[in-house]
Write a structure and sequence with these properties.
The complex is a heterodimer of chains A (222) and B (235).
Chain A: H1 2-26, E1 27-31, E2 36-38, E3 44-46, E4 56-63, E5 73-83, E6 87-94, E7 110-118, E8 132-133, E9 146-147, E10 153-154, E11 166-171, E12 188-196, E13 204-216
Antiparallel strand pairs in A: 1-5, 2-5, 3-4, 5-12, 6-11, 6-13, 7-12, 8-11, 9-10
Chain B: H1 2-26, E1 31-40, E2 44-48, E3 53-55, E4 61-64, E5 75-77, E6 90-100, E7 104-114, E8 127-131, E9 135-137, E10 147-149, E11 161-163, E12 170-172, E13 186-191, E14 205-214, E15 224-233
Antiparallel strand pairs in B: 2-6, 3-6, 4-5, 6-14, 7-13, 7-15, 8-14, 9-14, 10-13, 11-12
The chains are: A mainly beta (222), B mainly beta (235).
Chain lengths: 222, 235
């Protein structure tokens, strides 16, 4: 009887361990490299350069009034992704929230994604399906700035295009079978780009947070 | 029995260890965050609104003219201000261009220095001053904003000056209508924010002429230097 109990408990333990490992290894999002910032006055960006670390990036765009004489403040955030199934990457947003229409609005923060890159030889390069950057985000906002009829800078895509959980990228399995744990060579990286044109915004401070999530996507063949 | 309990205890300990290790060693997460912030400070600027207009002068001229949207650095020779100049006024109109993302205050400070030694030399009260019509126009300008002109406008207007019946000297008598009112930094104009959220490359703004006038009179002979500094702030 005792032997049966022992076997039962051990079976449960092994099942739990297997479950934990399997669930944790299906989808992963991480830092894709060192984020960079240009054109800032008093701004900065912090984040890990290691593909093994979580994606936790803090951007301070700094001064974005005309006191910043640069034409644009531009931030590139590399993001690492891994999956053992077809995937999609979604984005949700909180902020910026300003009641004054002349203050920074979501449409004033250009946002785009591009530059999908293989991490290494454990990455799963598929030939029967493509990875798709979804419109309108498939652009570099630093090169898509135009001036609207009211004189305000606008972008091909911006944070105003992120509504609810918004898909920005999907594709086939990213990681070769049996190589799903977080490594430096078993997934893909892509760039998330943010841009703000210094303008005569109403004074104040603004903040926003984007959450990137990788999950099961359209079931496409590799 | 004791052996079985020991086995079970060891198995449980191993289970917890394996379970935690399974999660920790994987170190994976399906989400990541990008937090961002930005700051907009109050911003104001004053530039030239264009070329200076000089009229009623005898001799003299605009030595350094204003160039629109460039820093304001104008130099004017008003020429002869004695009775040999038969014009009723020598008038210089200097266009100013203001831009801001916040409520603004335009202040002015003036000094007048003459080489004469008597009270008949040109003094600050002999230099009429006023701000003309304020214009908010063009794409990106807050055209709904209002402005308050603390001066009395064009100093050559009949309502703004007259000959003193007792002394015979022409005087600019209206409120803040001559430079004696600006011997210290004094508000000349203030108003609501000027620019909507547009880039600095947008060259529109608020324009207003600063008008200076002197009535040629039997001033004591000599030369006079008038220095005026405009300052715009966002209190």
């Amino acid at each position: 009887m005792a032997r049966l109990s022992t076997i039962g408990i051990l079976s449960l333990v092994m099942t739990l361990c297997a479950f934990a490992a399997t669930e944790a290894q299906t989808f992963d999002i991480s830092s894709g490299g060192q984020p960079t910032i240009t054109g800032a006055s008093g701004g900065s960006v912090t984040g890990s350069s290691s593909l093994l670390n979580d994606l936790t990036v803090t951007i301070n765009f700094g001064e974005i009034s005309p006191a910043n004489t640069n034409s644009i403040v531009y931030v590139v955030v590399p993001i690492g992704i891994r999956s053992t199934l077809p995937y999609q990457v979604t984005v949700t947003r909180t902020g910026p929230s300003n009641a004054n229409a002349q203050a920074l609005q979501p449409a004033d923060v250009g946002f785009g994604v591009n530059n999908l890159q293989v991490m290494g030889n454990k990455s799963n390069v598929c030939t029967n399906s493509s990875h798709i950057f979804y419109s309108p985000f498939d652009n570099d906002p630093s090169s898509s700035v135009t001036i609207a009829a009211n004189g305000r800078a606008n972008y091909s895509s911006s944070l105003s295009n992120v509504s609810g959980s918004t898909v920005i990228l999907s594709g086939p399995t990213l990681t070769k079978s049996g190589q799903a744990q977080r490594r430096t060579d078993n997934g893909f990286t892509f760039n998330a780009m943010f841009a703000i044109t210094p303008q005569f915004f109403a004074g104040g401070t603004s903040s926003a947070t984007l959450t990137f999530t990788i999950s099961a996507g359209p079931n496409v063949p590799c | 029995m004791n052996l079985s309990r020991r086995v079970i205890a060891h198995a449980l300990a191993l289970a917890i260890l394996l379970f935690v290790a399974a999660i920790v060693s994987v170190g994976q997460t399906p989400t990541g965050t990008v937090s961002m912030s930005a700051t907009v400070s109050k911003f104001v600027e004053i530039n030239s609104g264009g070329a200076v207009t000089l009229s009623g002068n005898s001799g003299g001229g605009v030595t350094t003219d204003g160039t629109v949207n460039n820093p304001l650095a104008v130099s004017i020779n008003l020429g002869e201000l004695g009775p040999s100049n038969s014009n009723s006024f020598v008038t210089a109109s200097v266009p100013l261009k203001l831009r801001s993302n916040a409520a603004y205050v335009l202040s002015m400070n003036a000094t007048v220095t003459s080489t004469g030694t008597t009270s008949n030399k040109i003094g600050a009260a002999d230099v009429g001053f006023g701000l003309g019509s304020v214009t908010r126009s063009g794409t990106g300008v807050n055209t709904a904003g209002t402005d308050t002109n603390a001066t009395s406008g064009d100093p050559t207007l009949v309502a703004n000056g007259s000959v003193n019946g007792a002394s015979g000297r022409y005087e600019f008598t209206a409120v803040k209508s001559n430079l004696s009112a600006f011997s210290a930094s004094t508000t000349a104009l203030n108003g609501a924010f000027i620019m909507n959220a547009v880039p600095k490359t947008n060259t529109n703004g608020l324009t207003v002429p600063a008008i200076f006038a002197i009535k040629p009179q039997f001033f004591e002979n000599g030369s006079t230097t008038i220095s005026v500094t405009f300052t715009v702030t966002a209190p």
